[in-house]
Amino acid sequence: MANYQLSDVVEYRVRSHINIYDSPKCDRLATQAALGRHLRVVDPPLRQRDVNLDTTAVMVRLCEDDYPGWLDIRDVELLDVAETVYHPLVLSEAQIKEKLPIVIAFASEAMNQSNYYLWGGTVGPNYDCSGLMQAAFVAAGIWLPRDAYQQEAFTKPISITALEPGDLVFFGTPEKATHVGLYLGDNRYIHSSGQVQGRNGIGIDVLSEDGDIVSQAYYQQLRGCGKVVASYLPS
After folding, report:
1. Distance CA 227, CA 169 (A)
2. 16/24 Cα distance (integer angstroms)
3. CB 34: neighbour CB atoms within 10 A?
4. pTM of the model
5. Sheet containing 201-206: which strands, arranged edge to edge?
6. Pick from 99, 122, 203, 213: most CB atoms within 10 A?
């Protein structure tokens, strides 16, 4: 990948975990690409001899979830041309249900590691809320969209009384989901929560106004619940 000879007509495979940023300044994390993920370059820089010295980032789109962002130009060396393009795995609702214990086990194990809430985090041990959900489902071979509001739109809406382990619980404003957790059963869910809500990392809370201060704060923001019935298929 020397000389910035990137192309927007091939697909790349990530050789190591890398950060993807929300602007070419590369000062705010948007998401992360774990080892083995695929991406495409949206707007490739020119060859080294033609690149403006101010070029610091290249716009990319992750293949598995269509997520856009900016790659620090210094991380270009961590990309290899993919030998084969990404092909999503089509799963039935029944197949997904069989895999949910893996999802729950991943999230539970993530909680047992030292961690803190990282905005944009999808690679352990530090996650944001939707990053933890995406990583947990990927551990079972199931892809979700990246952000909480996208995950809400992707899932099949269900009532709170119909919740089963492995379903998602969404919180936020009347206009938009801003937080998500994984339902464990017995009125409990696991999620990654920031310091503003009284924690800094992964924990388990209850869907009740009678819980502790963190549970109460989120329960007041409860928007709805969703069941994952498919693996995300890129456009």
Report:
1. 9
2. 20
3. 15
4. 0.94
5. 156-158, 222-227, 168-172, 177-185, 188-193, 201-206
6. 122
Burial of 217 (0-12, 13-18, 19+ CB in 10 A): middle
Q: How do residues 97-151 score in pLDDT, each as one tens digit?
A: 999 999 999 999 999 999 999 999 999 999 999 999 999 999 999 999 999 999 9
Q: What is the DSSP letter of 224?
A: E
- Among the listed residues 169, 99, 109, 165, the one whose alpha carbon sits nearest the alpha carbon of residue 138: 99
Tell me the C-alpha distance between 148 and 168, whole Å: 10
What region does 3 belong to: left with phi over 0, alpha with psi -120 to 50, or beta? left
Return the residue matching tokens 């774990």. 34
pLDDT at position 216 is 94
Are 226 and 170 a contacting pair, CB within 8 Å? Answer: yes
Tokens of 40: 């495409």
Integer Cα distance of 43 and 59 in angstroms: 6
Task: With CA atoms as reference, report the closest residue to 214 among 159, 171, 164.
Answer: 171
Distance CA 33, CA 12 (A): 12
Place of tokens 């990319």: 60
Structure token digits, residue 12: 């790349």
Q: Which helix (H) or strand (E) holds 58?
A: strand 57-62
**Is the CB of residue 76 less than 8 Å from the CB of residue 5?**
no
